[in-house]
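Milestone M4 deliverable, item 7.
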Amino acid sequence: MTATPYPEVSSIEQLKVAPSRDYVCCMGCTDGPQLDGMTDPVEWARRHRALKPWHDRFRIEQYTNFSVAPAQPDVICGATRKISIKLFDEASEGVEIERSDVTVTCNEAPHPGDEHSGPLIVNGERLGVHIWTAKAHEPAR
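Output delivered:
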């Protein structure tokens, strides 16, 4: 499983520990490299200004990528379904892992019909959305 470049957070505490990156930014254009520990921001600014003398203002900005879960309705459909999925664990050199104990719950507002969708969450990580049609022999739980 790979880490998303925009991890989902639900609190300021989680946001504070999310990975961040620093960039030197020219205020006269969109140029500026990521500060990787080897880039000297002052030297970069001097070289940049030598090319564009009117670009004389710079700053260092920190970026933290994150996402938030979609807003949940107060009342949800709640239909559930147990599914089996196959995951590829990159930490185990791409070993395929089958999980047959994953429960998905329709998190849409109550609705007519047999079409359902809900977040696919495994080990606390949101992997996507599972969409299904309830069959006549598969009652919603």
